Amino acid sequence: MTTTTSAQTTPSGPETSATTAAPRRRRRRIGRGRVNWPATILLAVGSLTVLVPLFVTVNMSLKSTSQAVQGNAFALPDPLTLESFVAAWNLTNFPRGFAISVFITVVAVVGEILISSMAAYAIVRNWDRRLYRWSFYYLLAAMFIPFPVVALPQIKLTGMLGLDNPLGVAILHIAFALAFNTLLLTAFLRTIPVELEESMRIDGAGTWRVFWRLILPLLAPMCATVGIFAFIQSWNDFMMPSLIISDPTLQTIPVLQNMFQTQFSNSYNVAFSSYLMAMAPAVIVFLVAQRWVMSGLTQGAVK
């Protein structure tokens, strides 16, 4: 009797191996299954729309001016030259424009992370109070107001307050991104158990200590996602600096590159060299931080 029960509950060795091998074969068949041709073709077309312009940009930037004006963008440079990078560096005063863009980007990224996380923490932990609940709805409503609609009032207001400079642009970036960032952080904060805070408060921790020591570290994946989006948006922004900053010597790199659409419209090699130098920091930051971007998005989606 005992032998029969044991045989039913614990299968023999060959049966166990056959049982475990079947799912493995099934998974291998799924992995080597039919190719999803529509998705593959769509990905290939999407990749070409990125790779072909990138190839043209790099190819043209390595040509001399006489080769660039011939009009054949796919002809390889012969010989290779870096004179266009030197010309772009001098024409745009690249070090000054780079420093101003870095200042705006750093202030915008740090400000968006801190202010949005504080706002989300206050809203989530005081959701039962009408003031905080309606504040959340007010922020959501701000997402539907694009910057061009309020551009003229913002120009007047920043001029009156003396913020028609890079600092004013950074503050506006923080203000306009507050709604979307608070939405992301609020959804993530709702997944953090309140019991973690209560254990710290029993030990005598106040609200500020709970936020800095517990909440902000737990928000790190989502803060990384918010920071990457803030970096790309503020680094590549053209409209807001061109409208807000009144001093031409304090303009950012994207605005300075506008000269290649006007007085240097035939200097294709110099223009593409300038574009490459401007996009390099954004590409490097994205390649380094893409793991945190995907981690923050997936954690927010699963929880």
TrEMBL record:
Residues 98-289 form the ABC transmembrane type-1 domain. Residues 11-20 have a biased composition (Polar residues). It is a multi-pass membrane protein. The keyword Transcription does not apply. Residues 1-10 have a biased composition (Low complexity). Keywords: Cell membrane, Membrane, Transmembrane, Transmembrane helix, Transport. Gene3D superfamilies: MetI-like. CDD domains: TM_PBP2. Residues 1-29 are annotated as: Disordered. The chain crosses the membrane at residues 35-56, 98-124, 136-155, 167-189, 210-232, 268-289. PROSITE patterns: ABC_TM1 (PS50928). It is found in: Cell membrane. Belongs to the binding-protein-dependent transport system permease family. This is Raffinose/stachyose/melibiose transport system permease protein. It comes from Brachybacterium fresconis. The lineage of its organism: Bacteria, Bacillati, Actinomycetota, Actinomycetes, Micrococcales.
